[in-house]
Amino acid sequence: MELLGIIEQLAPARALRASFYAxxxxxxxxxxxxxxxxxxxILMDLRILGFLAAQEYRPFLKLMRRxxxxxxxxxxxxxxPMFAIRAGEYFHNPAFRLKxxxxxxxGLNLLALRLFVSGSDGxxxxxxxxxxxxxxxxxxxxxxxxxxxFIGFV
Length: 154
What we know:
Elements: H1 2-8, H2 11-18, H3 22-48, H4 57-85, H5 87-91, H6 94-116, H7 128-150
Helix pairs in contact: 2-4, 3-4, 3-7, 6-7
């Protein structure tokens, strides 16, 4: 695809590719963001599932949701430049495509949780569908993690 070649030739992508320090630092920031995202999402999901009962339900979910949003923005901000340096290669990589699909499904799962089983204050209710969405969320995000690790090996 011509667009992918254009993306690879953008000045920031070329600079990132040429720098000895920039790519490892961006990669480390991406891993940090993914770690923070997974930790906050899994802790939030575990609380919805009934674990971590010592934590107050609503304040804990609110804190974890904010942490997850910040971490997702960090992962996006670091993932886009990493994609740009090899856009053509990543676009055709099955692990990358599956990772993107799983991120989309995790987003739809979160949207369903927010629309259909959240309380009026925006927190997930203790409805069985919320527990199902929380369990599915854990599986989807762990799938994202595994696919991300496989990108370099397929």
